[in-house]
Each structure stands twice: as C-alpha cells, then as structure tokens.
Write a structure and sequence with these properties.
The chain is mostly helical. The chain folds into two domains: 11-21 and 90-140, HAD superfamily/HAD-like (Rossmann fold, 3-Layer(aba) Sandwich); 23-88, DNA polymerase, domain 1 (Orthogonal Bundle), CATH 1.10.150. It is built from six helices and three strands. It has helices at 23-36, 43-50, 55-66, 73-88, 95-104, 117-127, and strands at 11-13, 109-113, 138-140. The protein has a three-stranded parallel sheet. Helix 1 packs across helix 2 and helix 1 (23-36) crosses helix 4 (73-88). The longest helix is centred in the middle third of the chain and has 16 residues, at 73-88.
Length: 141
C-alpha cells in the first residue's frame, strides 16, 4: 500500500453513537432503572437530561431530583446495560468501512470514550469492531 499525502496524523473516533449504536440502549436502561427507583423517566427525558454526562453526574442529578440517595444504582446500571448490549448492540452503519478506509489511507486510528475502557472493549467486541482497535488505541476519560 502506498501512503497518500495528507495532513492527517491521527483520526480519533468516539465510541458511543459514532462506532456503536449504544445511546438509545443506555438511555432506555437508565430511564427504566430511574423509574423503578421512584423517579419516573422516559427515554426522551433520559436523553435530554443525562446523555453525554459521566455516570456519576447522572446519578448526582437524579438523586437531587428525587430528593434522596439512589443507593448503588451504578453497579446495577452497568450490569443491566451489559446484558442488554449482549442482546441488542450493533455497530453504526458504515462504521467499520469508515475506519478501514482511514487505515487504508495510512492514517492511524484510536477510540476515545467517556465510558470505562471495559465498556468500550465490550462494545467493540460485541459489534465486531475490536479487530480494528488494538488495546493501545483505546482511551477513556
């Protein structure tokens, strides 16, 4: 392969919503668990109020709205989300091809995610995208 001339030195892909179609799944799980905890929440409300936040920030906001502690909802959320991911998670249409084209052009790639590395690895494994991203190319906030 001949390296093409370009100014790109690296392409950084976000994981959730860019490589894997996880936003609706994650927010659906969140809405369900918050509702079970006594804070009625729809998918639309979860996306509007919590999408893009760190999990700690999500639960801090939810506790404030509820007026009481939520307990250890974080571990339960992680577990339920992983279970649903295993059944439903898919790659975003065209994501693999986009990464492959960047790599074919001789430009290195990586994934930067706000989520934990374990979640990023799981998401990429479940969708078949992991083959494109060795461990050294995965980064977490």
């Amino acid at each position: 392969m001949v390296r093409q001339e370009h100014d790109l030195q690296l392409v950084i892909f976000d994981c959730d919503g860019v490589l894997v179609d996880s936003e609706v799944i994650s927010n659906s799980v969140l809405a369900r668990l918050l509702t079970e905890e006594g804070l009625p929440t729809t998918l639309a409300e979860a996306r509007r109020d919590y999408q893009g936040l760190l999990l700690r920030e999500v639960f801090d906001r939810a506790q404030s709205r509820l007026g009481r502690p939520l307990g250890d909802l974080s571990a339960r959320f992680e577990s339920v989300r992983a279970e649903v991911f295993r059944r439903e998670l898919q790659a975003v249409a065209g994501a693999a091809q986009a990464v492959e084209r960047v790599l074919a052009a001789g430009v290195p790639v990586c994934v930067a995610s706000q989520g934990k590395l374990e979640k990023t690895r799981l998401s990429l494994d479940l969708t078949g995208l992991r083959r494109l991203f060795p461990d050294r190319t995965l980064f977490s906030a």
